[in-house]
Specification:
By secondary structure, this protein is of the alpha+beta class. The chain is built from five helices and five strands, in the order αβαβαββααβ. A five-stranded mixed sheet has the order 1-4-2-3-5. It is globular, with a radius of gyration of 16 Å. About 15% of the residues are buried. About 10% of the residues have low confidence.
Length: about 140
């Protein structure tokens, strides 16, 4: 047992006195089709640590053309899964990815500002809620 884990988990879930905590955001449009590592560096320069992502299947597969050779450890599955800080430049971000960041609530909400249609926002939130509550993602580190 490592005693430092309890305060860290508490901070991630409930935040610190400055409202920094773990948030899950939709992959911003400007990051789609970019390498995870480059987005990680971009956000880190802004003081926003990127910890990982949730990957959802598209058309019944979580692997896109070319990825099976570059990142063979990732499963091809219909279930969503979590990747924590993938190394190297193999993971290309997709519009369907959800990113885990450490930030204030205000900063996290700013990533959602590009949603112009509140109906689309509600449908997307419902889509992700259904997937997340009905199927538990696998975790890969």
């Amino acid at each position: 047992f490592t005693p430092q884990v309890v305060p860290m988990v508490r901070m991630l879930l409930f935040g610190d006195r400055h409202d920094h905590r773990l948030h899950q955001i939709r992959c911003p449009k400007e990051f789609v089709e970019n390498v995870y590592h480059e987005v990680h560096l971009h956000l880190a320069a802004r003081g926003i640590p990127l910890l990982g992502l949730v990957r959802f299947s598209v058309d019944g597969s979580t692997v896109e053309d070319g990825e099976e050779d570059e990142y063979p450890d990732l499963p091809d599955t219909v279930l969503p899964y979590i990747i924590t800080n993938p190394e190297g430049k193999q993971v290309i971000l997709r519009a369907s990815d959800l990113l885990f960041i450490l930030s204030t609530t205000e900063v996290a909400k700013s990533f959602w500002a590009d949603i112009a249609n509140p109906i689309a926002e509600e449908q997307e939130a419902s889509f992700h809620d259904d997937i997340i509550t009905s199927k538990s993602p696998a975790v890969y580190t």
